[in-house]
């Protein structure tokens, strides 16, 4: 039963906020952000594999090399000041930065680097494959990564371009953790994993203050950060999945930044006093996938027909205006090697003919999981309507980000509306996700959309993916990825539809916020309030 008194007070408060020209103000030394963070499953960098947890790791931990807040397009020194690469012996030697301390006060040691990477391989959580693709295993990691004084020697197996190796070591699971503190909090052989989901143990510009799932994530400034302490003493990220509420809070001055506004809410801020909107191109591609464990979704004719059952332009120019652009390949536009052709358009009659010619009986009834968050549910409803015109009936199942992603990783969905961002800035990151599957067995978990949708690509596609990885000629290598994208457009159980554009609304006194192309490049260190 509704509490009438409480409801009346809430309504009067909302009206007052909407009408009053006077706004509150957040503290000068604190950044308050409203954001949907219910996708977080874990915040340990050895297992963190969601967009929101990626932002957290980027602000609390460091890698040896990274794409930094000052320029997210350039791979720069971080915890390592220099490195030498010997491609002939497949070796990289890193020299560590002097004087760096963890949040605990413990000094950074080469042993922490070795221990951090060994821990990722041993725990074998979702993102561990990023490091193990260098040929590292639990059995050989002690020989592949070694410490001596202030240097770390990395050995790898495979015919990789040196740039690929460095990009792997700039990725999230390569974050360096305070092994003395982490292992002091080990319980039952978990290598401190449970503790790390409630605490931070990094060298980053912020340390963890408070984390309550789907509630709040707060960060405390590290004044001793090697690149200089942040201007903000605290960053408070309030979980709020409702764009309408975020807009109200922003206009009232209760928050400094709103990250999940829908296009109409962004449009409604035009001319709002004290507010501006910034736009950031993103690397995330959005798609519908079909689980090959579902019998009605295994015919390639269903995949082909589905590609003509999305109203790409209608959605991009309407409900998604300003937040998505049509993109139909797995590697995002704006990066070398991206395929920008868009061969598919909304054509339900063509889709029905494809199904008829293949002898596929309609209607096909299937469930589709989607994150219950602004834009996603609306996208799902639009897709539901356009698919129905071709004889594919979708039942939408909405859940929190964590629920949907957990189900996806367990391969228990039927259809899925989701997004994918590169794990590191190399086209192999997405090629391996969309065009390669080493083993489709249920007990051979892989953090790829091929395995999660139980799809085994043709042997030739698998071979081409690995050949592109090892190609030393840069131009030829990019050409090979273009061909892989064309093949997955034609042969895979995915309907890739859009590339994201991030719109962030903020108070106009906020300066220095950095939102790179992926969640790993969202930085609060340079934020100031004027």
Automatic annotation (TrEMBL):
It is found in: Periplasm. It comes from the Bacteria. One of its GO terms (molecular function) is peptide transmembrane transporter activity. Residues 1-24 form the signal peptide. GO terms for cellular component: ATP-binding cassette (ABC) transporter complex; outer membrane-bounded periplasmic space. InterPro entries: Peptide/Ni-bd (IPR030678), SBP_5 (IPR039424), SBP_5_dom (IPR000914). Residues 75-441 form the Solute-binding protein family domain. Gene3D superfamilies: Dipeptide-binding Protein, Domain 1, Dipeptide-binding Protein, Domain 3, Periplasmic binding protein-like II. Transmembrane segments: none annotated. Keywords: Signal. One of its GO terms (biological process) is peptide transport. The keyword DNA repair does not apply. Belongs to the bacterial solute-binding protein 5 family. This is Peptide/nickel transport system substrate-binding protein. It comes from Litoreibacter meonggei. The lineage of its organism: Bacteria, Pseudomonadati, Pseudomonadota, Alphaproteobacteria, Rhodobacterales.
